[in-house]
């Protein structure tokens, strides 16, 4: 991909799954990657793997819900690599107890809001000033197909993921003239460790039957789309919500 070599980016929630695959892909493309995760050791392990393969990466502790922690990861990018070109805000969590609207406790909604929506806002507040100062940059947020599909079994996760779409469109429209691009990727069913733990074999089979494709998603499928959006090849993509899902939901 064009223009990723030598670029500096953050992958928040990059300790495993889609974030880890994205960090590896970005490093393969020549980017310097700062990987943050609430599980700091996972982030450092991914960075060690990247460095072992000849790439450039560091892993740091990150609590994405904390403004101080988000400021610290941006500072880590500046201290280690001198700038910040893109930020992939990928982390998610807090879905335990998330059921239908009559039974989902308020605490579960609040937790989902903090992790799945507010953290992306805080990331934006931490990263954007640096990008604006250097004349541009890319924010890439991970949402979910659940934000636009119907989910009778859960309410907080799709509600709070949806907020990311509005955030990205706000950032794209407010600062596009200043060289900022903001886009969202909505993965379909991607067989990460987290998904394998939560889905039974039967649910995996069901999902496979529903997708108009030979297989379910691999983290590398999402990593490729994110790398594109971070690269110069994605230079004219702004304010978009992209579904990368093997065709599970087909949308304009
Ligand atoms: N895998 C899928 O099928 C799928 C489908 C739709 C959307 N998504 C989205 O893609 C993203 C990645 O999914 P995944 O399957 O790789 O999940 P995952 O659980 O493997 O990865 C999420 C990472 O975020 C980290 N994290 C959680 N809370 C954090 C916090 N407060 N601060 C910092 N890090 C934190 C976790 O430790 C983990 O490493 C998520 O946003 C998820 O909602 C995934």
Which CATH architecture would you pick? 3-Layer(aba) Sandwich
Strand percentage, roughly?
15-25%
Query: How many whole angstroms does the radius of gyration measure?
Result: 17 Å
Which sequence of strands runs across the widest sheet? 3-2-1-4-5-6-7
**Beginning-to-end CA distance, first to last residue:** 25 Å
Q: Give unreliable regions as ranges.
A: none
One letter per element, helices H and strands E, the order comes to: EHEHEHEHEHEHHHE
What is the number of E strands? 7
- At the first level of CATH, the class is Alpha Beta
Q: Quick check: average pLDDT?
A: 97
Helicity level: 40-55%
Q: Please give the largest β-sheet.
A: 7 strands, parallel
**How many H/I helical runs?**
8
* Structural class by SSE content: alpha/beta
């Amino acid at each position: 991909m064009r223009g990723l070599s030598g670029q500096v980016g953050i992958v928040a929630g990059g300790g495993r799954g889609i974030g880890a695959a994205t960090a590896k892909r970005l490093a393969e493309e020549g980017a310097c990657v700062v990987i943050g995760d609430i599980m700091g050791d996972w982030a450092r392990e991914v960075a060690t793997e990247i460095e072992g393969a000849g790439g450039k990466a560091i892993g740091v502790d990150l609590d994405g819900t904390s403004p101080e922690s988000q400021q610290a990861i941006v500072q880590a990018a500046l201290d280690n690599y001198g700038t910040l070109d893109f930020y992939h805000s990928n982390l998610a969590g807090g879905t335990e107890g998330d059921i239908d609207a009559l039974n989902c406790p308020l605490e579960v909604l609040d937790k989902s809001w903090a992790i799945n929506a507010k953290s992306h806002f805080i990331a934006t507040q931490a990263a954007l000033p640096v990008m604006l100062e250097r004349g541009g940059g890319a924010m890439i947020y991970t949402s979910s197909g659940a934000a636009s599909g119907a989910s009778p079994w859960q309410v907080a996760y799709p509600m709070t993921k949806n907020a990311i779409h509005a955030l990205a469109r706000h950032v794209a429209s407010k600062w596009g003239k200043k060289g900022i691009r903001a886009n969202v990727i909505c993965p379909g069913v991607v067989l990460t460790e987290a998904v394998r733990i939560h889905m039974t074999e039967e649910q995996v089979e069901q999902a496979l039957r529903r997708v108009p494709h030979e297989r379910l998603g691999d983290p590398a499928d999402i990593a490729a789309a994110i790398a594109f959006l971070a690269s110069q090849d994605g230079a004219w993509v702004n304010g978009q919500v992209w579904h990368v899902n093997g065709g599970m939901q087909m949308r304009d």
